[in-house]
Amino acid sequence: MKYLIGIDIGTSATKTVMFDEKFNVVTSASQEYPMYQPRNGWAEQMPEDWRDAVINTLREVISKSNVSAEDIAGIGLSGQMHGLVMLDENGAVLRPSIIWCDQRTQKQCDEITEKIGKERLIEITANPALTGFTASKILWVRENEPEIYAKCRHILLPKDYIRYILTGEFATEVSDASGMQLMDIPNRCWSDEVLEKLDIDKSMLPKMYESPEVTGKITKEIAEKTGLSVNTVVVGGAGDNAAAAVGTGVVSDGKAFTTIGTSGVVFAHTSEVSIDPKGRVHTFCCAVPDCWHIMGVTQAAGLSLKWFRDNFCGDFMEMAEKEGVDPYYLMDKAADKIPVGSNRLIYLPYLMGERTPHLDSDCRGVFFGLSAIHTKADMIRSVMEGVAYSLKNCNDILNEMGAEINEMMACGGGGTSALWRQMLADLYECDVKTLSSKEGPALGVAILAAVGAGIYDNVKTACDEAVKIDKICSPNKENSESYKKFYGIYNSLYSHLKEDFKDLTK
Q1: Do 242 and 308 lie in a common domain?
Q2: Buried-most residue among 89, 283, 365, 377 (CB within 10 A)?
Q3: Which of these, 103, 129, 107, lies nearest to 39 by C-alpha position?
Q4: Do 13 and 78 fall into the same domain?
Q5: What is the DSSP pairing of strand 292-298 with strand 282-285?
Q6: CB-based burial label for 344 (10 Å; 0-12, 13-18, 19+)
Q7: Has residue 417 been placed in a domain?
Q8: How many Cα atoms are found within 13 Å in the side-chain-facing hemisphere of 270?
Q9: How would residue 437 be classed by pLDDT, with cut points 50, 70 and 90?
Q10: What are the catalytic residues?
C-alpha cells in the first residue's frame, strides 16, 4: 500500500493529512499561527510560521501513522493564494508576507491599469488589477521599501515557499500562479508583456508546472527533521480553491462548489477559457491540465462569523468549553431559532473590502436595520445570511456568464453548518451537497500527488475513487421567496453607501 500526504497552508492554520492510496484518512495534524494587521486594511503573516507548522505537522503525522517513509509516494501542497513571499539570494525571507486579504495597494493597482490598459490587462491576466493579487504587492514593496526590493532574488507564493523548504526548488504551478496577475491565463505561462510594462525581472519568478506534475523531491535535511524519505515526490499542487475543486470532484463542466472558509468562493469548472469583460469574477487555470475555472470571491465569509464570535460571543465560548462542543455549534443552534431575514436585520460582510461583485477596497462591514428588538442570535443569523447573499452575488454572475451549473457542492468550515447550507440552497434554489470526506484542499492535493506519483492515470480517474457524496440539502420554496425580498435590499445597500465608504476611508 502506498500513502500520500496533502498539506494545506491556510490563513489561520496549516493542516497536514495522510491518506492511503484509496484516499482513506490515516491520520492528520494541524497547527495555528497569527495574522498581523499593522494598520487598518493591512494583513501580514510570517512565512517562518508556515514553515514551522508544516515541519511540525509532518513530523506528527508520520510518527502517529506507523507508515514506512518509503511507502509515502507523494506530497501535494495547497495554500492561501496571492501572498507575496520575498527571498534574498540565500533563500532567506526578507519581510513578512503581505497576504491575500491585504488592501493597501489600490495606488499600485491604478498604476498597473494605467501602464497595461484595463481591457488589455483583462485579456492577458483574465482579471482587472486587484489589491489582493500579488503584482500590486510587489510594486508596493518596490515603492515603499526599496532597500528590501533591492535584495529580492526570488518571489514565491505561500505554498511555493513551503515547496522551497521541502525540496530546495523554486517552482509554482498554474492555478496559484494565475492569481499573481503576472500570467498569460489563456496560454498558461508568464506574460512577458505584463512583466516588461511593470518592470519586474522574470528571473525572480519560479519555474511553472501543471498541478499534477512532479516539481522535486524531499531534501535530506527535511527527511531527517520529519521522517520522510528523500524519494518522496512533491507535485505542483494547487491554490486553495483549485485544490478544493479537486477534493470535491469539481473537475468537469457543469460542476461547481461553494466554500466558506476565511474567505468565501463560488467556483465553476470550464474546459474553455471564459473571461468576464467586467472583471467581476476571476478566471484562473485550474488544477486539471488544460482546463480553467471561473470564481467569485467574498473576502470575509467565515472571517465575518469568526470576528463576531471572538468579539461578542464570549458566553457561547465559555458554554462550549463546559459542554465540550464547538462554539459555532451553539451559535448555529441560536441562529436557527431566528426566522429568515433575521427579523429585518441585514449584514454587509465587507470587513476586508470586497472582490465580487464590487471590486472595492474601501467598503466596510455594516449592520443595517439594527433596533432594540434585536438579540445576539439575530445578529449571528444576520452575519450568516449576509455572507450567503454575497455568495449568491457570485453565483448569479457565473450563471450570467453561461456556466450551466447542475451540481453544487459545499465545503470549508462553514460548509459543515447545516443552517448555512440551507441558506445557500434556498438562495441558489438548487440542491447543495456535501461529501463524506471533510478534508477539502488537503484531499485535493493528495489526489494530485497520486497522479504525479503514478498511482492514477489522471485527475478525473483519481477523483472517481476519492469523492463520495454524503448529504444533500434541498431548497425550501417558502424560504426562497422570503429571501428574494431581503436579497433585493441587500443589493441596493452597496450602491447607496458606495460614496460614503470612500469618504470614510479619506
Answers
A1: no
A2: 283
A3: 103
A4: yes
A5: antiparallel
A6: middle
A7: yes
A8: 22
A9: confident
A10: 240
Residue 196 domain-assigned? yes
Mean pLDDT of 298-314: 97
HEC per residue, 297-364: EECCCHHHHHHHHHHHCHHHHHHHHHHCCCHHHHHHHHHHCCCCCCCCCEEECCECEECCCCCECCCC
> For all residues of the chain together, what is the average pLDDT?
96
DSSP 189-246: EE-HHHHHHHT--GGGSPEEE-TTSEEEE--HHHHHHHS--TT-EEE--EEHHHHHHH
- CB atoms under 10 Å from CB of 214, counted, come to 18
d(CA 287, CA 293): 9
102 assigned to some structural domain:
yes
Q: How far is the CA of 242 from the CAs of 156, 285, 314, 332, 481, in angstroms?
A: 18, 9, 35, 28, 33
Helix axes 240-247, 459-466, angle to 10 degrees: 60
Q: Is residue 186 reached through a cis peptide bond, with omega within 30 degrees of 0 on the bond before it?
A: no
Q: Are residues 104 and 64 in the same domain?
A: yes
> What phi, psi does 53 have (nearest 5°)?
-65, -40
| 444 shares its domain with 386 | no
403: confidence class by pLDDT, cuts 50, 70, 90:
confident
Higher-confidence residue of 24 and 280: namely 24
Identify the three-state secondary structure at position 477. Answer: helix
Answer yes or no: is 313 within a domain.
yes
- Containing structural domain, residue 161: 3-247+440-467
- Quote the number of domains for the chain: 2
Residue that is written with C-alpha cell 496549516 in the block = 14
Whether residues 331 and 194 fall in one domain: no
**CATH number of the domain enclosing 334:** 3.30.420.40
Residues 182 and 331 in one domain: no
